[in-house]
Amino acid sequence: MDYANWSDPLVAFVPATVTESAKIVVAGGFGVGKTTLIGSVSEVAPLRMEEPITIDSVGVDDLRGTPEKTTTTVGMDFGRLHLADGQLVLYLFGLPGQLRFRPLWEDLAEGALGCLVLADTRDLDACHGALDLLEAQKTPYAVAVNTFPDAPAYEASELRQALALDAQTPLTTCDARDRTSSLYALITLTEYLTAPRAAAPLEPRP
């Protein structure tokens, strides 16, 4: 399927043209922009399971990069969009960012075709927990660096080394607030997931 035509108009229903659907998870560290990205691309009002950040988060959740943040995802985010002239529907599940939610990550990631991992160059270590889980579950993924205004910029080779990415793992950038930019990141993942891959070589028989 050709995903080049991805700028479909917003719709409030699943088009009759849909022939394929996929579950995609959006992962990454605390405050990296997962809720924002899903909200920017979803055709329907996104489901958000958030709670106010309280004093109990002091010393637990790092708010240095997002001092204006007042809520945090404690369950999941959910959104939906269609691509490729309405032939493909993506169901997006945003995972909470804190490592203490790993059991929930495992449940939500089950059955996903792939994952878009958001990264913040101010704290690249924050997405390692999600990357470790995806590697353990053998879930394909792409990484998108969310370009915060005050975040340092690095060469792609430096980011790949810092995140220990394989050469074939897609790495792109996005502004989670911008629909077009966020769509491009999701399409980068979708094209990677649907690209033909060479079969693994067979081991010689003993």
Automatic annotation (TrEMBL):
Keywords: GTP-binding, Hydrolase, Nucleotide-binding
Gene3D superfamilies in the record: P-loop containing nucleotide triphosphate hydrolases
InterPro entries (UniProt xref): Gliding_Motility_GTPase (IPR052705), Gpn (IPR004130), P-loop_NTPase (IPR027417)
Domain of life: Bacteria
CDD domains for this protein: Ras_like_GTPase (cd00882)
Signal peptide region: none
Family that this chain belongs to: Belongs to the GPN-loop GTPase family.
Name by which UniProt lists this protein: ATP/GTP-binding protein
Lineage start: Bacteria, Bacillati, Actinomycetota, Actinomycetes, Kitasatosporales
